[in-house]
Structures are given as structure tokens and as C-alpha cells.
């Protein structure tokens, strides 16, 4: 799609195009995000919102202490978030480190979760600091193990130093490795990009290079998925769709822990990008603890009372 917007794929063309983007109104972005956060929704809409948020979760474990048993338990929860209630939808994906991809894929397939994709964090996650050869092999290993979604991190150092061509080329090459085997989610680590203008530029840079999704953060650096950041990214995918006809997904990750947080995200999506993004194919939430709160709130909506603390599993 970059050919529609760029004279060529040189760094000078990239910088020339990105210079045409209007600057972000920082005050306005914060004010609009704050205003949308005050929106209330009716009970019937809240039921829908809870189930929709569950279906959008990339249920995640990214710890050095992850074990096969922990990943298998996470997969069981992904398929049947509430074992006592089969009407609860399954999650959007299971997200793990490379070495756990095969375990997750095998477990999901064995328990009726073959339609749930495994997402692998890749390209020297979370720092992004490795040679491209290492990043490419990292991606290939994940695909060979059964990943159908790759969450890659950009080289923030290169971006902040102005080496936008290097960032663009890495994303493009990783997308070529993914081919049709996997969707590519590009992680910016927005807490390190500092400004909303940089978030907007990174969003366009990734989309031009072939990203299927743009993702806020690794979850390892704060601040992460703040409402103004997500707002700017949603505006970017909306405007990019208007320019190119290509619809790109958005994945906020980091700091979204409660049902109230999740519903605020859905309001942001609906009011900024539009209802076309209100589905797991176009919007995901990277989270682990969030699912438990959604399940507890769902039970409260259904039965009129909260379950005990033992009702949900500890992740």
C-alpha cells in the first residue's frame, strides 16, 4: 500500500510523507480521551461490551518463569474462560514467548481451541536490540512452531535517532517472512516514544511497511496503553483506511486490568475509528488479569452478585 502514498521506499520519501502529517493537538487529544472516558452505557450494552472485550483479549503470559504447565492452563482458560458457563466466548489469541508456541498450539488443538491463534512475541522482544539476522530467525522459529500471529518490536533507538528507513525496512522484511502464514502486529513501546507526534509517525511508518496491526507496547514499560495514545493510533488507522482502503487493526497492551478500563477502550474504538473496528479481527487487548475481572463482572450482571475470590483462576 505504500506505493499509493510514497514516491519510492527511500528514507527521504518516508520522511517527506511523514512531514505532511498534521501535528497532534496534545491538549485536544487528552481532553477528548478524558471526555470519552466519562461515557456511560446501558445494562444491555454492558453485557455485549463484556463479551466483546473477552473475545478481543490476547491472553498473555510473558515471564521468564513461564512453564509448560502454566501455558497449558492458560490455553484451557482461553478456550473456556468460565468452565461453569459455556456461553462465555473464547478469547482472541494466546500470546507467549517463542519457546512456548508449540506447547500452546498443541494444547489448544487438543482441547477444542483450534480456531484460537497463537501469537508469539518476536524480534528480540522486549528490547528489539539484536541483529536483523537474529530477529529474522526469531520470527521463523515462531512460525515453524505454529504461531499465526507475530508481535514484533521496533528498534526504538533507530526511530528516535531518525533512522526511519531502518525501522521501515525491518518491518517490511519481517512481514515478508510472515507472508500469508501470520498476521504481523508491530509494537511501538509508546512509553519510550515520549510524544503523541512520534506515536502518529510510528503508526504510519508501520502501516506503510505492511503491518496488519499496530500495538502500543510490550507491557514491560510504563506508561503503556494510555487513552490519548490509543486515540492517536485509532485516528491513524481510520485516516489510513480513508487514504488507501486498507483496514489495519489496533492492539493496546499494558495497564488495561478492569472491566471499566476495557469498556473505555471499546468506546474509544467506536467513537474514533468506528464500529468496523469493534471485532477481534480489528481490535485486540493484550492482557492477563483483565479476563478475571470481566468474568466477575459478567457473573454480577447475570446473577446480581459477585462470585467469591476462588471463582476465577489465579494467573
From TrEMBL:
Biological pathway: Carbohydrate degradation; 2-deoxy-D-ribose 1-phosphate degradation; D-glyceraldehyde 3-phosphate and acetaldehyde from 2-deoxy-alpha-D-ribose 1-phosphate: step 2/2
- Enzyme Commission number: 4.1.2.4
List GO terms (cellular component aspect).
Answer: cytoplasm
GO terms, biological process = carbohydrate catabolic process; deoxyribonucleotide catabolic process
Reaction catalysis annotation:
2-deoxy-D-ribose 5-phosphate = D-glyceraldehyde 3-phosphate + acetaldehyde
Q: Does the keyword Chloroplast apply?
A: no
Task: Please give the name of this protein.
Answer: deoxyribose-phosphate aldolase
Q: Which organism is it from?
A: freshwater metagenome
The record's family statement is:
Belongs to the DeoC/FbaB aldolase family. DeoC type 2 subfamily.
Q: Which UniProt keywords apply?
A: Lyase, Schiff base
Please name the top-level EC class of this enzyme. Answer: lyase
Task: Give an example GO molecular function.
Answer: deoxyribose-phosphate aldolase activity
Q: Which SMART domains match?
A: DeoC
Amino acid at each position: 500500500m505504500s506505493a499509493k502514498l510514497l514516491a519510492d521506499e527511500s528514507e527521504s520519501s518516508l520522511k517527506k510523507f511523514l512531514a505532511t502529517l498534521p501535528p497532534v493537538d496534545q491538549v485536544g487529544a487528552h481532553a477528548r480521551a478524558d471526555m470519552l472516558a466519562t461515557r456511560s452505557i446501558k445494562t444491555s450494552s454492558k453485557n455485549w461490551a463484556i463479551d466483546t472485550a473477552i473475545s478481543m483479549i490476547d491472553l498473555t503470559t510473558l515471564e521468564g518463569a513461564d512453564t509448560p504447565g502454566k501455558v497449558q492452563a492458560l490455553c484451557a482458560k482461553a478456550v473456556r474462560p468460565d468452565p461453569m458457563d459455556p456461553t462465555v466466548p473464547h478469547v482472541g489469541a494466546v500470546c507467549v514467548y517463542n519457546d512456548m508456541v508449540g506447547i500452546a498450539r498443541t494444547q489448544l488443538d487438543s482441547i477444542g481451541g483450534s480456531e484460537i491463534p497463537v501469537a508469539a512475541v518476536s524480534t528480540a522482544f522486549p528490547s528489539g536490540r539484536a541483529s536483523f539476522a537474529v530477529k529474522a530467525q526469531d520470527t521463523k522459529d515462531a512460525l515453524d512452531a505454529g504461531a499465526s500471529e507475530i508481535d514484533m518490536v521496533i528498534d526504538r533507538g533507530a526511530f528516535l535517532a531518525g533512522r526511519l528507513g531502518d525501522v521501515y525496512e525491518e518491518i517490511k522484511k519481517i512481514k515478508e517472512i510472515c507472508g500469508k502464514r501470520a498476521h504481523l502486529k508491530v509494537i511501538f513501546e509508546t512509553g519510550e516514544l515520549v510524544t503523541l507526534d512520534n506515536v502518529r509517525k510510528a503508526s504510519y511508518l508501520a502501516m506503510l511497511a505492511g503491518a496488519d496491526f499496530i500495538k502500543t507496547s510490550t507491557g514491560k514499560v510504563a506508561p503503556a496503553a494510555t487513552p490519548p495514545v490509543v486515540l492517536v493510533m485509532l485516528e491513524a488507522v481510520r485516516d489510513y483506511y480513508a487514504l488507501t482502503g486498507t483496514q489495519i487493526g489496533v492492539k493496546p497492551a499494558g495497564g488495561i486490568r478492569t472491566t471499566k478500563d476495557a469498556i473505555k477502550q471499546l468506546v474509544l474504538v467506536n467513537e474514533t475509528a468506528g464500529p468496523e473496528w469493534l471485532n477481534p479481527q480489528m481490535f485486540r487487548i493484550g492482557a492477563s488479569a483483565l479476563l478475571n475481572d470481566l468474568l466477575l463482572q459478567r457473573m454480577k450482571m447475570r446473577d446480581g452478585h459477585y462470585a467469591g475470590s476462588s471463582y476465577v483462576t489465579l494467573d
